Fold each of these.
Amino acid sequence: MTSATEPAFELLRFTAAPLGDGFVVLDLEGRFVGRGRFARRPALVVERDDDAGSLELTPLHAETEDGHRWRATYAVPVADLEGARFGLAVRGTLLELPPPDRRSGAGAEGPGDRSAAVAHEDEARGQAAARAEAAERRASAAERRIEILERAVRELEQRVMAAEEEAGAAQDELVAAEARAAAARELAAEVEVRAEEADARVERTAQRAAEAEDRAEQAERRAAAAEERVEEATERATAAEQRAQAARQRAKAADERIQAGEERIQLAGERDPDAPPAGPPPARHVARRPAATAKPVPRAGPGPERWLAVLALLLVVAVVVVLALDRI
């Protein structure tokens, strides 16, 4: 227990009287030296020897007389008085106090002391009842808070259960979403493979188209050359036809002259069988006799130029059919 370096409090009286219900009333009276106003009322400190700690008690009643005389009443459990040390806490300073003087009963007290003790006892009992009532109110408020907290806990449990259910549903949705994502990835891979195959097919088709275009160009060039050859063959065939027509006309004219000569010879023989035949001189007659007895000259058939023109036309038709099939 510490004490002030200079006495700031003069102890006049420090007594203990039984209160009942396990409490003792401590009356403290003295003078403060050079005291001003207290920021808080001085507290009684009770230090116990059983390592149970210390008690800091506020006064049940305190009053000041003559500006310096100070009196206060404290209520302390009886069990805390045995072997305890006392002090007065004033403005951060702990002033050491001697053990209180104990008063055992009415025989040791005068009438004034007895009435003061009764007054103190009544006051202490009122203070204790007030504290008990305040404690009951605090307990009731605590029970209400406990009920509120229990309701809050139940609500929180319900919310936790709902949150767990939502979390389970969200987990199921997540699993389903992951499955859909895996299926989408597989589909995307399949589509990519199909796209690559389609690109390859497009490339092959483009190559075949290019080859077909090359073949078409070559066929067109061959067709153009064939057309030129057909035109040339047609021209040659036309010229040959014209020459054949002229030859047929000449052959026809020769046949007509031969027939006219034979008719004249026949008429001359009928007129004079013994007479020499009339007509041209013997030399010319001898030269033309074989012609009179020769068979008529057959008409000339189609020449090689005509057949060449027909073959050229067939070639052109074949080229056109091949181009049409390539384009299909």
Note: Confidence is low (pLDDT under 50) at residues 2-7, 105-110, 283-288.
Amino acid sequence: MLFTSIAAAVAVAVAVPAARALPQTEAQTEAQTETQAETVRCELPELRAELVEMQRLDQEARNGLIELVQSGADQRSAEFQTVIRKAVELDRKHAARLKAIIGSHGWPTKTLVAEDGAFAAWLIAQHADFDPAFQQRCLELMKPHVGTGEIDDRNWAMLTDRVLLAKGEKQRFGTQLEKTPDGSSHRMRPCENPETVDRRRAEVGLPPIAVYIASVNDSLGRGG
């Protein structure tokens, strides 16, 4: 499972009773498979390597939180709070670096940094909840590339929903979920015109919402 927020990582850690290798997102798996299948070609290979390393550190920090929670650590303890603080500091550091990258090169597309580098850039933006103006800026930079093959349109959709919800508006693609009141499953957070959400999801390459929710339930456990 790819963790896109500190809170999500902690929530999953509490819900999943035993430490185990959680599945990656479909987008991440495809990105890694494609880049491993052939020699990576991009205009900025050093920047690609930097972005991929930032993603590795990002997920390492979140997996560390999971391990700590599942070990039974008190979330109010100094140890736990230190891990949280370091993860948040890492998010801020990565966001600052991405801002600099954007200033120099524009949005990191597949041509510039290959599939996995573009994915890592999106992930850093997705984590910058502490800077909604920056997330909005990233969304604007990604939008011209939708449908061109230069970014993963699914990632753009996920960031769109993140930004909309942060502004107190309804999401558009149904990518952001929450637990049902009884904790037994997941459901969409508020979404505009939910009766046509599958049409919008299909336009960006996302599976039907029912399939998506079932996948989340299966990967995290019904109450995960």
Note: The longest strand covers residues 177-179.
Amino acid sequence: MNAKIFESAFPGTLVSVSFGNKDLKVISMNGSEILLLCDFPLEDGCDLDVNINQWEEMQGYAHFRLENCRIIEEVIEKYYTFYRLRQEKVYSEENRDYQQIVSKINNIASGKFKRDPVYAYVHDKMTSQYDFDGIQKPGSLDFKAYMYKTPEQSFEKWFDINIPDNLNRRFRELSGKIDMAVSLSGKKECQVFLENGWNEFTQGKIPVPLRGHGIFLRKFNRLYLGSEFCHMLMPDMKQIDMVIRKVADEGISLTAALSYIPGYCLEKACLLIDFLQESARKNGMNIELAVNDWGIIEYVSRKKFSNLSCSMGRLLNKRKKDPRISEKIGSGIHKDSLRNNNLNIPRYGNFLKNKGITRFEFESHPSGNKIPDGKHSLHFPFYQCNTSQYCPLHAEMKNGSRKLQTPVKDCPGFCSYLYGSYPDCYPMILKGNTVFAFDDTLLTDPAILEQYLESGIDRLVFNGTEVFP
């Protein structure tokens, strides 16, 4: 056995094998034998659980139990051991054909079907180390329709939410106890806002199927301007000044969302913050900054601006959030741990308080959040899964490959009309440099909303327009 064997290993997105709550690496498999790598000893005659992703039919995972696996080869290395096993019996609750499914997954991994666009997509994208999931222009389908949908089709499906009248009444009752905010990013979206009244703009941003939903009974009273995930999506100074004057005239509160700050943008970011302070002072208002960069937190803390305050942004509120987490072996036993992070440690909270940060930005996601003491914000219905400084969409369009990523210093705004599509079984979409997922928890279960209100959430931020203007 040598290091090259890892190159042929099955990616975890295709096949996973576990013994109890422990994961094993699959090197190869056929109908009767399986070659595994693990860092703990296996017993002869053990039972293994196997999950194989049904990419062709998009039916999720096929689950099998390999019973009484006999060790026919064992190679012990310094840090791990290779086992070649032969199972005596295969059990499937769904009565799936193990031999047939293993044959298909081998064909996918080997690229045998590269002439077929679906298989080529799976082989070229899913078996690589990157998570980019293809470029797809709205209104077109490059792959099978039942597997990949346009953003419009996805949004139509996700927002098609019908709740009983009794639950909707409860949503209306709870909406009176919370402030509502809406997000806005990009120059084009900013111009739309400037050309319309506040009520007209915000109502137009609520998806049509949700306009009778009780959670939107209360009018929006705050605007989140900019993006927490991309430094290129902040409007220019002229637009920002016009937005500040407009919200000040209409009595709307303002939060300026700031992303991570690349080194070459630091000076520009500091000038922007100084500009926000001066504009807030002139218009007799306070502006909140949703900050996602420690350097900016330190800058604001030292300058002690009279009209600016900081909240901790979502990129610094780090959590494992992904709709595929539930498919990982043993994830169920760690569900409570996924709700916590360092914000639940009092010492860390005191450190942030000394930096002038007492409000934190959270997201609604399947694992949930344990909210620390204080008053905080909750963004819904989309949550961020992954963000990259080196935008894969920009690299694909400018350099012809997502692998040729470079710092983005000038961007024409590809993400305003191009999206990355995920298989239809996952409520996910890639916009620019960020993968977002959809979570309907706050739109379907008023009890969850009530729990958040009781734990310290006093502001909901509707971010549908952040993902799909």
Note: The first helix runs from residue 98 to 110.
Amino acid sequence: MSGLASRQTPDRTPKIERRHSFEAHQERFCVCHEISKCKPVWKKKARELWFGGLLIKHFDKPAKKQILILTSFQELHWVHDIDDPLPHDSEVEPKKRLMNTIQSLNEHHLIDLLWFGSNGTGDGIRWEILRPKRHRKTPRRRG
């Protein structure tokens, strides 16, 4: 399934973004034969998150907190759980800050294949592979 989202660029021209399902790119997803053994790749200089040879997310603008989380995962070779790497801010409660960053990290994916979430205690973050959803075909009505 693909969808279109429109947003305005600074010069007020609409920018069209395409969002694709895994099925749309399945033929290109051949880097790992077993999806469960694949690990994401964070390319810090390019500000790109990749998984299985597919671009998942590109940051047009720096997002310090999200980038810090992705850099931490990359440095730790993408273990499934890490402690909260964000610096403490006296103005924002740590659990709320982490949850807001996780929510932002899950937004604007080009392909719905990765998901980030809390570790359940609010002091860490984890990542998971989203399994492709099976779409049930509905029979056509004959008129």
Note: Strands lie at 2-8, 14-20, 40-43, 48-51, 54-58, 81-83, 114-118, 124-129.
